[in-house]
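DM from R.C. (forwarded with permission)

"hey, sorry to bug you on a friday — could you get me a structure for this? deadline for the figure draft is monday and I only need the backbone to look sensible"
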Amino acid sequence: MSGADIRAVLYAMVDVMQDALAKGQIVRLGEPGSLRVGISSEGKATAEEVNSSAILSFRWFNFQIAQFTIFISVFPCVPEIFIFSGQ
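My reply, with the result:
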């Protein structure tokens, strides 16, 4: 396996992760952990009306790795980082 092969896999993984996070899904990476985001959005009457323009703000990012959880809050505009140990 070459360096180019590894880079190609990593670029593809980032694309898949971005798509999944944009859809509100949790990205599970197996042993390394999982990623998820939280947003604030406008309410819509039907699913067809929902699109990216309804997003008002990015609220938090959560990365769980092994026994630790890294929670980054960016609401109400002051970034805060919390690290929790599962032990």
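R.C.: lifesaver. Residues 3-85 form one domain.
me: no worries. Residues 3-22 form the longest helix (20 residues).
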